[in-house]
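Standup notes
- DV: blocked on the single-chain target, sequence here:
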Amino acid sequence: MSTENITIPPETARHVLWRYDRVGGQQPGTFTQHLMAAIESADVINRATLRGAYPALSAALHMARYDEEGLSKLLAAATQPHCADCGDTDGPFAERVEGYVCEPCTKKRAL
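- DV (later): unblocked, structure below
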């Protein structure tokens, strides 16, 4: 499975780090916990089906399990600044009490 062209959102990275009991992890909801277990235990055909529906989560789990530096890459993705409203990681960001907010979301809030 190639994970090179898939962007892993910070929240997804934190969930996978939690599954592997790593620093920077954040416990996801029950559905995501069961989904991660299903992806990891699925046979080849069902894993491909789940990858089609959940590409970022599948890529992150694959990276954690099979990439020698996968957990380090996920920690970097988990701590990357991102917009609290839309999840955008491009920036620039304004720092707010609830976290970073990108310029378009800052403008939407002003309306």
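- Follow-up: The CA atoms of residues 3 and 59 lie 5 Å apart.
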